[in-house]
């Protein structure tokens, strides 16, 4: 801050954010904070913040018990197996979808790129496809007449 002296509101906000030790405060705030900390109001604010710091520093997290560790592993194992199975099914669906798309693209390309029929085959009957005649050539029999 460009001011030479810090007000009580700003000092209290910094003390609640950074604690009662001025070395933890931002460097650009420390000069003005040290000047305000010499006042009675500044000492009272720092004492309250230091008390909170001491209370928070006294907390010790206990180590997890072996029973908790075993319960976490037992609960996590079915979920991990379910997730693996789900991932396997989705990859199978993906492969089936890619196969279907490839077959469809091949069928479309075969239909689009098939050669046009020659003039002598301009009349199609039931046995004629884009790839040519499906049925073998027949000779006229009495049944056809």
For the largest beta-sheet, the strand count, sense and barrel status come to: 2 strands, antiparallel
- Please state how the strands of the largest beta sheet are arranged side by side: 1-2
Radius of gyration, taken over Cα atoms and rounded to an integer in Å: 42 Å
Which stretches are poorly predicted, pLDDT < 50 over at least 5 residues?
none
Strand content: under 5%
Distance between the termini: 111 Å
Query: Count of DSSP E strands?
Result: 2
How would you characterize this protein structure?
This protein has 145 residues and is mainly α. Among the domains are: 8-57; 64-114. It has 4 helices and 2 strands. It has helices at residues 8-18, 27-37, 40-57, 66-112; strands spanning 128-129, 132-133. The chain has a two-stranded antiparallel ribbon with strand order 1-2. α1 packs parallel to α3 (40-57). It is elongated, with a radius of gyration of 42 Å. The chain starts with 7 loop residues before the first helix and ends in a 12-residue tail after the last strand. The relative contact order is 0.06.
């Amino acid at each position: 801050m460009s001011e030479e002296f810090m007000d009580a509101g700003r000092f209290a906000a910094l003390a609640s954010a950074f604690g009662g030790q001025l070395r933890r405060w931002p460097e650009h705030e420390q000069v003005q904070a040290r000047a305000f900390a010499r006042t009675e109001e500044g000492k009272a604010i720092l004492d309250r913040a230091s008390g909170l710091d001491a209370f928070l520093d006294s907390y010790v997290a206990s180590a997890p018990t072996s029973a908790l560790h075993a319960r976490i592993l037992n609960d996590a194992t079915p979920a991990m197996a379910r997730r693996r199975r789900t991932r396997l099914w989705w990859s199978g669906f993906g492969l089936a979808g890619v196969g279907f798309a490839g077959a469809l693209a091949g069928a479309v390309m075969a239909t689009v790129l098939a050669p046009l029929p020659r003039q002598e085959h301009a009349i199609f009957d039931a046995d004629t496809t884009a790839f040519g005649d499906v049925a073998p050539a027949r000779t006229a029999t009495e049944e056809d007449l």
